[in-house]
Amino acid sequence: MIDPAAVNDSETRPIQPRRRSLLRDAGLAAVGAAAVGGMTAAGLGTASAGATTSSIPMNDVSQLVFVLILKYVTANYYLLAATGQSLGPDDTSGNFSFYTNTVGNFPGKTVIGGAAVPFKTAIFQQYADNIAADELTHLRYLRAVIAPTNNLYPMPVIDMAAVWTTIAVQAQLIVPGQTFNPFADEISFLLGAYFLEDLSVSYICGAVPTLSDASLSEYFGALSGADAYHAGTIRTLLARIGGGGPVAKLSALRQSLSGVVDTGILTPAGTVNIGPFGPQALMLTRTPVEAYNILYLTPGSSFPAGQTGGFFPAGIYS
Predict the structure, then answer these.
(1) Per the database entry, which stretches of residues form a coiled coil (predicted)?
(2) Which residues in 213-223 are b (16+ Cβ under 10 Å) and which e?
(3) Which residues pair with 269 in a beta bridge?
């Protein structure tokens, strides 16, 4: 793996005690209400109380739901790393069940594992805190947009424990019998973040041309841009501390699971590789199936109702 001692000494300095109240102090409690107002202004639905319809085409709603489920994973990852807390009930419940195809009140499920990362490097902690706040904002906006359509899917059971050892074994970062915990230290945290970030960008960017609503397309474009900043930051930090080898293995695993070409933070010549770009220096994209094959850690899953594994030990239809 990566030796934490490889980090530049000038950046390894005492940091202030962790802010466990990140969610409250970030002023995010009102994000949901503000998002609904913005949604109405953008023509993406209605903010009226008890609304049950929306102008969003159903294909677009499906894309919103699959991005929401992805954000359940990424938001929990960063919130746990930054605060030691996973998403609460207000951010995980829903009014629609994929399994029964009914509308009602459905509580969100649990998150298995995860903990606050014992950061030693100030800049790493600050980035984790910042991305955690961004991910929570994204998730709350998506939920506010989806809710009036009666397709607000509750959070499924999400694994943040055993899944990481499975990833590390499949990527040949460790051998069977060993364990990998991305919350154990800041370097491991960056590797876990890397596995998720490029996936998020490629999927959301790939969804843009499939959307019918112009305002929603604009939002998805901006959302992929925000996630691209996150991904670029993680790639840069890993490049600076010599993470090329482990990152290349994680990229190879994502490629084997999705079938989409994936590139790490170094070129074959050993120079820095800014991003996973195609021949025209554009972001490589993934379809929902390709993205979820990575999340399931199973190629060719195609969303079958009985599919379980990876980050979803009970599937996403439970």
Answers:
(1) none
(2) bebbbebbeeb
(3) none
